[in-house]
Design goal:
homodimer, 3-stranded mixed sheet, mainly alpha, 24 helices
């Protein structure tokens, strides 16, 4: 036995992948023994380098339980194509060995015909369990839970509970084994004990007397983001899922919660950039599918931005007489867009992690107004100096550099303040209206501030230059 | 015992907070018994509603271990102010009961004088342990690990291992108890067994024969993001941390990994919006501190954007003769900025989660070039139609609406393609140069594309209009 560290890029997988590929061709029956010591995540890394045919072969020569482990770690795309092309008997036997939640997830991604065929090859009990899980919304607690859990009655002793865990472990259950859920006569969830607490409890004590009653649970219909929030808040390794009567249906384990957190985060980042969530890794989403998810917002924002043409055309004559004003247009609108994006991102994220709530609206408003004032004054000063130091003399009409610089400086101040406040308040307004605050994306804020910024610019110029 | 569900907004805390506040004034000695059943996370929610004085009182009347649990769940700001104002003897006793990693984290946040005073009141062994942890970089595996773990020798039996876990649990250890790490004669980490595996193993078997040898570990110097990546990839509940000799130093538990993931995500979102990471919740960062973290990039981008003035001024005469061209400026630059932000966000995120690597650079380039073509053509067509349908007739000089519309349409196509490709490739280039790709923020891309877009616009106009 040697310590194996794994900290760089998947070195282990890269080292042994060629051997395994060769072995699959020369003596496939030896592959199982050769890869026995590998973590399934590493085996999945090796599988990335295999052709589809070799991957199917690998799944067929591994022991069923080992193949099931591997399937759980494959990318959605790889496992879907492998299971769809494999013969349905093999596929059913492998899928049977998966944990109930992963089994349901996998089947959901397969073509319906293939999924039904595989499902019909699964033993009746596991099939019923899978069908029950498939009935939940994929984004709900029910949709991500597993039905594997260990429970005991209130009147059981800690020894009974430990025996229950031991029996489940010997049956090969892999999940939900760090906690024992305590049920009353009506099978309602009334307590929880960690294995640590069971081992530490005085011998012979009853769960009724030693189990913690402060059990945190979620209904099966809870949104998966809510499950993630609760896991994080209470530092849980598993969250029990209950029905309306308080009876336990399953548990969501922390590894799935981490996946939820990362996926939701990716969606938020994409929404913030005005992209409809891709829902799959970048290269696994079809080219035209990505284009569609980007075009919607882009075209809408573009059409909105055409309003800037009307605003500018409305001031056409005046601009013609002081041509220099048009030179500062891009500078002014980008300052507003950038500061607005900052505020929108800060507040949207603060709402998402719970650092800011709707009740903080006034505080946010005042704070961002102040930020806008400071940032706007700083940028305004830079803009003012830029005009003073290098004025576009030929195109300033009858006005002095100081006058033009004042118009530019004041406009930048006003536009940055507008961007900051609108960027901060829009996410709150959207949340209030029950809409996802992420719609207040950076491009949306920037486009909005473009229009407002140009109107402000021309109003300020009109007032100060008397045009 | 009644089932307690906790799925909405912290209802429990809101319900009992007034009672606890009243009790703290009338008979504080009863508070411990009254709140005994509360999860420390809920008690921390109650603590949010308390004044600083009441919070200190609460920490003093609770049993030390319970107070330590509460401190672990308080916000950084609240626990810092409470511990700094409490007398150092109480504070030291509470801090002693915390898990080693949280103890180090708390002390790190206190003023140095206070931290030293508290540290000197902690028993020698715990103090030495804390000082060892404080020596690691806060963002490294060593900086987030706890030293509480359960280990056993290779020649121990599964019964020995279970006895070890039981003893640790009875000593009150709270973390790292789901796994037993297996050490060789030189105390090197050579294996790992979960409690499930220990319970399922044949009675009397030796760890040498039954422990998994495929143990994933990280060096103490590993970045915390790397720890998070490994936890996620291998679905771990704890990652052991080793020194250069392979000896185990501690473990990072999954609850801390989740905090790392959420914090790193917040930082990424802030960087994407050209804000230096706040590192604390929105309302806990000082007003001027936020302003500084925003002003840096904002001013830099603003100064960069002043280049647009030079580009425009360079074409001053030509623009004067075809005034209408200036009306389309904001529309054109925002189209480029928006599509560029989309690409930059998609690729930066894909790099962060590992969906895209540097080796994919060519594939990304071709894909985004294609995206730019499709999106640019769509927006270009909309722009073309807008000019055709409502041309700013008075300001088009001698040119027909079709000619101006062609200039606008082609420019939008070129600018969107530029934005898309630059937005996608810049994160890859930055990663290649060893710089954080998040610097390619939406505002940065937008500002860059502003300049490029105006140059493209005026070049295309010059070529087509012969100006």
């Amino acid at each position: 036995m040697t310590p194996s560290k794994r900290t760089g890029e998947h070195t282990i997988a890269a080292l042994i992948a060629p051997d395994i590929r060769a072995l699959l061709r020369s003596s496939p029956q030896e592959v199982a023994a050769e890869t026995e010591e590998l973590h399934p995540a590493d085996l999945a890394d090796v599988a990335k380098t295999l052709t589809k045919r070799d991957l199917i072969k690998l799944l067929q020569v591994l022991p069923r339980e080992r193949a099931a482990d591997l399937v759980e770690y494959l990318s959605d795309q790889r496992r879907t194509e492998a299971l769809e092309e494999m013969n349905a008997v093999d596929a059913a036997q492998i899928v049977t060995e998966m944990t109930p939640d992963d089994r349901a997830d996998v089947l959901e991604q397969l073509e319906e015909g293939v999924a039904d065929e595989i499902l019909s090859g699964i033993p009746a009990e596991a099939r019923a369990e899978t069908e029950r899980l498939l009935a939940y919304e994929p984004d709900s607690a029910g949709g991500i839970m597993t039905t594997e859990l260990t429970s005991a009655r209130l009147d059981a002793s800690v020894e009974d509970a430990l025996a229950e865990v031991r029996a489940a472990a010997r049956r090969g259950r892999r999940e939900g084994l760090y906690l024992v859920y305590v049920l009353d006569d009506q099978s309602r969830l009334v307590g929880v004990m960690s294995l640590r607490e069971i081992l530490a409890a005085p011998p012979g004590s009853l769960l009724r007397d030693v189990a913690g009653t402060d059990v945190v649970s979620v209904p099966a219909t809870a949104d998966r983001e809510e499950v993630a929030r609760i896991t994080r808040e209470y530092d849980l390794v598993a969250v029990p899922v209950v029905d309306e009567g308080g009876r336990v249906l399953g548990v969501v384990t922390v590894d799935d919660v981490i996946d939820v957190i990362v996926e939701e985060q990716t969606e938020d980042i994409q929404k913030q950039a005005a992209v409809q969530p891709l829902e799959e890794p970048y290269f696994q989403v079809g080219f035209f599918s990505i284009a569609r998810k980007r075009a919607g917002w882009l075209i809408l924002l573009f059409m909105g931005s055409t309003l800037t043409i009307n605003v500018l055309a409305g001031y056409g004559r005046q601009l013609e007489s002081i041509m220099a004003l048009t030179f500062f247009l891009p500078l002014i609108v980008s300052a507003g867009g950038n500061s607005g994006s900052q505020s929108a991102s800060l507040i949207t994220r603060a709402l998402a992690v719970g650092d800011v709530t709707l009740r903080d609206a006034l505080r946010v408003f005042l704070r961002e107004l102040g930020q806008g004032l400071i940032l706007g004054a700083s940028l305004g000063l830079v803009g003012f100096m830029r005009v003073i130091l290098a004025p576009p003399t030929a195109e300033m009409g009858a006005f002095s550099a100081t006058t033009i610089a004042t118009v530019v400086g004041l406009t930048v101040l006003a536009v940055v303040m507008t961007g900051t406040v609108v960027g901060a308040m829009l996410p709150l307004l959207l949340r209030r209206a029950g809409v996802d605050p992420a719609i207040a994306s950076s491009p949306f804020i920037a486009s909005f501030v473009d229009i407002a910024g140009i109107a402000l610019y021309l109003s300020i110029a009109s007032a100060l230059l008397g045009m």
